[in-house]
Design goal:
Radius of gyration: 40 Å
Structural class: alpha+beta
Order of helices and strands: HHHHHHHHHEHEEHEEHHEHHEE
Number of strands: 8
Number of domains: 2
Distance between the termini: 73 Å
């Protein structure tokens, strides 16, 4: 019992904290009641009651018996016209609880009007008592029905509504006939009590259902929000539409330019907010990668493959198509330069005591997507393009090449500089405006030639190209 009471208290507190949303839920419930099977049963019941009352009035030679057929005209019009009106003006749904109350009060008025018509044709006290007893049996049922169906967000309002309906109904019966009122007092009391019990059960059920739906929806939204941190939005949509996770990303072999970003001498950076600095850098890089992201076809400026402590690997051309109309090489170089600009901004915010510079290696080759075979099925890429891009970025660590890069930078007046090294095939695919940025290095030059063994990851390479910038 304590568990049940605890649940009810939880439902009550939740509905109180989300009163507006609970009110919307009750509006929907009231709307469904009026235009659903309950509304249709109500109309059928009114029709049967009106016909039965009319036949009784005819049998008693009531001169105004015809009026009983139209006694329930108001509630019938309200219930019958609601589904029609809602097709033209859906905003009426927010008034559904008030419309249910209107049906309730007009039903009580209609019942009182029928009583007035029937008692108007009664002459003797005996006939009056017979009719009072006949109608008194319907008082309880009528009051129970109108009290039970209430759609107000707080039950205090429902109790006040029920009391007012009972008082109004009692006053109407007293107006119709005092003897009828005397016979109906107990029926009125029973109708109020039984109707209030039913209305409370009804209210408690709706409240529990609202709590369950809302918390389930909140849980689903939370799961959705957390899952969106692990997969792309198009994957979420495809999974929601019944696709398997493994079908949400390209798996066939393709071609791409891989960009490997690394910070020069990152281990020498000593600062209490070093980790936050790199997180901000990678966040800005991700924003660059996701520019122009769309689903059909699947494309974005670049694809973030992974973050590696102080490094960032991305791809252009696979698994996402490039967003720019220019060549793949132009898109890759443009993205790399944009990342260096973003990196400079983060370095400026970091306000470190010494210059912090980065290098990027670009390489074009085969690449393929894959999902891990077991456990958490994270998406990954593998292929020659990744290996080669890593190696091209690491060329800066060759002393003879670094001397060459530094001498060229010195001619430009740069002591510290960012470095962009690109593969020969990438350079040859660039438009003239981008190609003019780079300096060619002949790998057969004795000053820089390191032997075939050092270039085994790209045996066809005869040149490399570099660009230095602040």
């Amino acid at each position: 019992m304590s568990d049940i009471n605890g649940e009810r208290l939880k439902h009550s507190a939740y509905c109180r904290d989300h009163l507006q949303e609970f009110g919307y839920e009750l509006c929907d419930e009231a709307s469904l009641l009026i235009r659903g099977w309950v509304g249709r049963v109500f109309l059928l019941l009114i029709l049967v009651t009106s016909v039965a009352t009319y036949r009784y009035a005819i049998q008693t030679n009531n001169p105004i018996a015809l009026l009983t057929l139209f006694a329930y005209a108001l509630p019938v019009i309200i219930v019958g016209s609601f589904p029609i009106i809602i097709n033209f003006y859906s905003g009426i749904e927010k008034f559904s609880p008030a419309i249910v109350d209107a049906v309730s009060i007009t039903s009580l008025l209609s019942f009182a009007f029928i009583g007035y018509v029937l008692f108007a044709n009664v002459d003797t006290q005996v006939e009056r008592e017979i009719l009072s007893n006949r109608l008194a049996g319907q008082v309880n049922f009528m009051l129970l029905i109108v009290i039970a169906l209430s759609y107000h967000a707080t039950y205090q309002v429902t109790i006040i509504r029920n009391l007012l309906l009972t008082v109004v109904f009692a006053a109407l019966i007293f107006w119709v006939d005092k003897d009828f009122f005397a016979v109906s007092v107990l029926q009125l009391l029973q109708g109020f009590l039984s109707g209030s019990v039913v209305s409370w059960i009804f209210y408690d059920v709706i409240r529990a259902r609202f709590y369950s739906r809302s918390t389930d929806a909140s849980t689903r939204q939370h799961l959705y929000n957390q899952l969106s941190k692990l997969v792309y939005s198009h994957q979420l949509e495809m999974i929601k539409n019944g696709e398997e996770l493994e079908a949400t990303m390209p798996l066939k072999e393709g071609k791409a330019i891989v960009s490997v970003f690394d910070v020069q001498r990152s281990t020498e950076i000593k600062h209490e907010k070093t980790q936050a600095f790199f997180l901000n850098v990678f966040e800005s890089f991700l924003e660059i990668c996701m520019r122009g992201y769309e689903h059909n076809p699947l494309r974005s400026r670049a694809f973030r493959l992974k973050e590696t402590g102080d490094g960032f690997i991305s791809t252009v051309g696979y698994p996402f198509l490039p967003t720019e109309a220019e060549s793949l090489a132009d898109s890759a170089v443009s993205t790399a330069l944009t990342m260096l600009d973003a990196f400079n901004k983060e370095v400026e915010k970091f306000n470190y005591s010494r210059p912090i510079k980065a290098s990027i290696g670009l390489a074009y080759n085969s690449i393929q997507g894959t999902f891990q075979s077991a456990g958490i099925r994270s998406y990954d890429l593998f292929g020659e393009a990744i290996v080669q891009a890593v190696k091209y970025e690491e060329l800066r660590k060759r002393p003879e090449l670094w001397d060459l890069f530094s001498k060229h930078a010195a001619k430009l007046g740069l002591e510290h500089f960012h470095l962009l090294i690109v593969q020969e095939v990438v350079y040859n695919s660039l438009s003239p405006s981008y190609r003019d940025l780079f300096v060619e290095v002949d790998l057969t030059d004795p000053r820089v030639f390191t032997g075939e063994e050092d270039m085994r990851y790209d045996t066809e390479a005869r040149y490399i190209y570099f660009y230095v910038t602040e």
